[in-house]
Amino acid sequence: MKVRELREMSVNELIQKEKELREELFRLKIRKSSSTLESPAMLKKLRRNIARIQTILKEKGKVEA
Which domains does the chain have, with CATH numbers? Predict the structure, then answer.
């Protein structure tokens, strides 16, 4: 995801998106442990997207406070 797209989302949308990404990351980790992944780089992408969302949520929290 692009940072611009994430910044345009509301706080609730960001929280929901983070939850979805965490679930997907969990599923990929399970699949990785049981077999090989077709795209191991996907794990890195998901972790980075989660970090981006968390950063934006913190920024929005400071602005609203």
Answer: 3-64 (1.10.287)
- Checking 42-50 for CB contacts under 8 A at 24+ apart, the result is 46/21, 49/1, 49/21, 50/18, 50/21, 50/22, 50/25
For residue 21, give the nearest of 36, 6, 34 by alpha carbon: 6
Residue 43 burial class via C-beta count within 10 angstroms: exposed 0-12, middle 13-18, buried 19 and up: middle
Name the pTM for this structure: 0.86
Quote the tokens at residue 17.
Answer: 């998106």
* Interval 18-64: pLDDT, tens: 999 999 999 999 999 888 888 889 999 999 999 999 999 999 987 76
